[in-house]
Each structure stands twice: as structure tokens, then as C-alpha cells.
Write a structure and sequence with these properties.
Radius of gyration: 66 Å
CATH class of the domain at 139-256: Mainly Alpha
Distance between the termini: 176 Å
Shape: rod-shaped
Largest sheet: none
Number of helices: 7
Strand content: under 5%
Helix content: over 70%
Oligomer: single chain
Length: 260
């Protein structure tokens, strides 16, 4: 055989040796695979055992839950299953706090309302006292005014009949007491509107009588030449004074009455 063929044969034998070597090692592979299969089987067995335990625990939990449902509810805890109870407790506290705040606010509002009512009552009492004082002042001014007017009419009723001689002798008295202020009538109106109106008419009559008397004061009546104008003034003034005196007498008598 040629050397070239021998070399090729040697290469071929080496190649076959390389291929046959792994084939000789292949029987070891089932041992590793077997080990893996055994480990997988052990894990599956453990998994089944764990699943059985889990099922047992789940059954126990369901049984306990049923017992708990039939029994009284446990106190609230921080676990998720008691979350609704915790929320209810929270809102209960919030509502209680709001109720307390409402009670406190209501009490303060009541206190402020009471203070306002007391202040209003005090103001009303002060106003009532002031009104009573004003009414008393008006009554006093009214009585005094009526008494002054009644005195003036009585004074002139006694002298009006002698007006002709008084003018002739230049002895006519001053007539300022017939010119009384209308504040008397205003005081009467504050007490009673009818009294005020009556006094206003009386004061008008007294002033008119005064004007009539003053109109003849400076007449020269020597020898009785001007008795006519003086007599006419006297008659009109006497009528006005008589009417005023009558009204004033009635008012004065009303003051002296029990309810006056």
C-alpha cells in the first residue's frame, strides 16, 4: 500500500475513534436524566403534599369563618377582613366629634342669643323708662299749661265787662297772659290727641281775644265817642274767653279725676 493511502487510512481510523468515543460515553446520560426525573418526582410529591395541606388549611379556615359568622363578631383589628369595621369606627368618631362641635356651637349661639335678648330687654326697659319719664313730663307741662291758661281766662273774664271804662281811663292791663305757647297743646297731643286738639283751639281763642282787646287799647274815647268799636270788641272777646274758660275747666277736672 502506498504511503499516501496509509496516511489517509490513518486519518480515517482517527476519525472513527473520535466518533466511537462519545458513543461509548452515552450510557452515562441515563443516570443524570434519572436523577433529574427523581428530583422532579420528589418535587411533585412535595407539591402534592403542600397542596393537600393548603386544602386542609383552607377547609379549616372556612369552618372557622362559619363559626365566626354564627358567633359574635370579633373586635376590630387592623387586618384587611376588618377594614369595614375600622371604617365604621372612624366615621363613628368623626360623627361624634361633629356632634360635640355642634353642641358646643349651639351652646355658644344660645349664649350669644341670650346676651342679645338681655341687651334688647335692657334697651327696651331703658326706652320704656324714658317714654314714661317723657309722658310724666308732658303731663306735668300739660297740667301747668292748663292751669296758667285757666288763670288767664278767669282774670280777663272779670275785666272784659269793664273794657270801655278801662280803655277810657287808660288802665287796660297787659294781655301777654293770653298769648300762651303752643307747646302746651303739643304736650296735650303726646298725652291724648283729642286733648291736644282742644287745647290748640282754646289757645287760638285766647289769642284772638287778646288781639281784639289790643285793637282798642289806644282808642281815644273821651266823652264816649268811640264806645261802639270798643263794645263790639268786648262782646267778641268775652265770648271767646267764656268758651276757652269752659274748655279749660273741663280739662282741669279731667286731670283731677281718678284716671286723669
Amino acid at each position: 500500500m502506498k504511503p499516501k493511502h496509509l496516511a489517509a487510512l490513518g486519518v480515517l481510523l482517527l476519525s472513527l475513534a473520535d466518533v466511537s468515543l462519545p458513543s461509548a460515553q452515552k450510557p452515562a446520560q441515563p443516570t443524570e436524566l434519572q436523577k433529574l426525573k427523581e428530583r422532579v418526582g420528589a418535587l411533585e410529591s412535595r407539591q402534592k403534599t403542600a397542596q393537600q395541606r393548603a386544602d386542609t388549611l383552607d377547609s379549616d379556615i372556612k369552618a372557622l369563618q362559619q363559626k365566626a359568622d354564627r358567633a359574635e363578631p370579633p373586635p376590630p383589628t387592623s387586618s384587611p377582613s376588618n377594614a369595614p369595621n375600622w371604617i365604621m369606627a372612624f366615621f363613628t368618631v368623626v360623627i361624634a366629634g361633629a356632634t360635640v362641635a355642634y353642641v358646643v356651637l349651639t351652646k355658644r349661639l344660645w349664649q350669644e342669643t341670650k346676651k342679645s335678648a338681655e341687651a334688647a330687654k335692657n334697651s327696651a326697659d331703658v326706652l320704656d323708662r324714658q317714654m314714661k319719664q317723657e309722658a310724666d313730663r308732658c303731663k306735668f307741662a300739660l297740667r301747668a299749661g292748663v292751669a296758667t291758661a285757666l288763670e288767664a281766662t278767669e282774670f280777663w273774664k272779670k275785666r272784659i265787662g269793664d273794657l270801655v271804662n278801662l280803655v277810657g281811663r287808660r288802665e287796660l292791663p297787659p294781655t301777654h297772659n293770653l298769648n300762651l305757647p303752643y307747646s302746651i297743646a303739643e304736650s296735650g297731643s303726646l298725652t291724648d290727641i283729642n286733648t291736644g286738639l282742644t287745647l290748640s283751639l282754646v289757645l287760638d281763642d285766647m289769642r284772638t281775644a287778646r288781639d281784639l282787646i289790643e285793637s282798642v287799647r289806644n282808642i281815644n274815647n273821651e266823652g264816649g265817642a268811640n264806645n261802639g268799636p270798643i263794645e263790639r270788641a268786648r262782646e267778641e272777646a268775652a265770648t271767646l274767653l267764656a268758651n276757652a274758660h269752659e274748655e279749660l275747666t273741663e280739662l282741669s277736672a279731667a286731670f283731677d279725676a281718678p284716671n286723669g
